[in-house]
Amino acid sequence: MTRILSAPVYDVAIETPLQAAPALSAALGNQVLLKREDLQPVFSFKLRGAYTRLSRLSPEQRAAGVIAASAGNHAQGLALAAQKLGVKCQVVMPVTTPDVKIEGVRSRGGEVILHGDAFPQALAHALNLAETHGYTFVPPFDDPDVIAGQGTVAMEMLRQHQGRLDAIFVPVGGGSLIAGVAAYVKYLRPDVRIIGVEPHDSNCLQQALAAGEPVVLPEVGLFADGVAVARIGEHNFELCQHLVDEVITVSADEICAAIKDVYDETRAICEPAGALAVAGLKRYVARDGCRGEVLVAINSGANINFSRLRHVAERAALGEGREALLAVTLEERPGSLREFCEVLGKRQITEFNYRCQARENGQIFLGVQTDPALAPRAALLTQLAEHGYPVLDMTDNELAKLHLRHTVGGRAPVGLQERLYRLTFPERPGALGAFLNALEPRLNITLFHYRNHGADAGRVLLGLEVGDGCDAQAIDQLLSDCGCPFTDESDNPAYRLFIG
Questions:
Q1: Which of 2, 116, 124, 269 is the most exposed place for a label (fewest CB within 10 A)?
Q2: Does the active-site annotation cover 300?
Q3: From the candidates 186, 282, 300, 401, which is the catalytic residue?
Q4: Is 44 labeled as catalytic in the residue annotation?
Q5: Is 408 left (phi over 0), alpha (psi -120 to 50) or beta?
Q6: Do domains 2-43+144-317 and 47-137 have the same CATH topology?
Q7: Over 70: is that where the pLDDT of 333 sits?
């Protein structure tokens, strides 16, 4: 407690707001508050612990220079702390570290050494360099001063909210944040539950608590790189073992959904580790059905590469149960796609991949918007089964989500005569079905690819069989009559090379 109260974090850090989340609160039936550590100067809480540790080094240790190992956020905090105190700083980072974090260190005067695929390899290399060259090693999490610095987050929260408080959700990597928060909160408010949140594939604290001692995970998931730690810190475990009430684990899809939740509330974008607490809070409410409680989630960081947002956006709908991915078998005949869309009705289609491969049956890779409360996935599966469509639910199939949705298709059957068109139509529920209804039943669709990109116009790649009096000129006229702008891609060399 004394270490936390005396931590000099405000030399470089700010007191971040404890912000109400009205949309989440309404959706979950509880009062949700977000501790905005993503607003720190280095966009992460890690600045608190790094500066506290560095400020308490002896003059001799500072003169020797400091070195650390980090997946990114501790590195940026240490670089800024070292810059503030005039100390030479080196950081060993895994080669998988996002560029935004690497540049964050360099922009603050720190030297970056990339080594290893994950944190354990980076840590071993940093310790070796410290011993060889006499640098002072600054731990990223397993240190009393680092824990004290992170504990100032709890000091602020209890000062900012002095009324009812039922639970605080804390992201867990090496454990310094949850150890510091638990130590402070449990001393003053032992009634408040401290709940750690980890990814399913990086649950080092959960496994340590189950084993009664720290354990080494054989491998860790890298999606939430800020918490990709194989072993909980010794000092942190000693505190967590007695002060943490439970640990919840969440999937990558749930993390993506939580990133969207935070964006909807704040217009700020969390990194995956930064949104862990919100994902755990949502799972906790869904599991226990609690209502009317006051729940706090710590948004721990916002250091995410812009290029990763594409993946986050794609998986967010799956994480919140608002999209189903299905493989549906149809008869291979003119009109079958149109009939299938009539069964779907006004449901919003998010993805539609189809390629003619045989003359009997065809398979569609289908994405459909769902609603956990009003139109759940189970109801959709039942509806399709009642209409005689064989369906494979791939919503939880990682292979399908990561790879198959981008590789379905292939070449047309030998001898098939087709024309290929790229077209657009207004993006609204039912638009796809309306378009298919406008095509004459005698037209056989041989290829159909569509993905919802959140724009106001849907983009479709369409293949149509030529023959039996249906020539290219007739197809062009029919598409013109549909009122959808289109481009004939039949002579495109890429089409001939890959799918023609």
A1: 2
A2: yes
A3: 300
A4: no
A5: beta
A6: yes
A7: yes
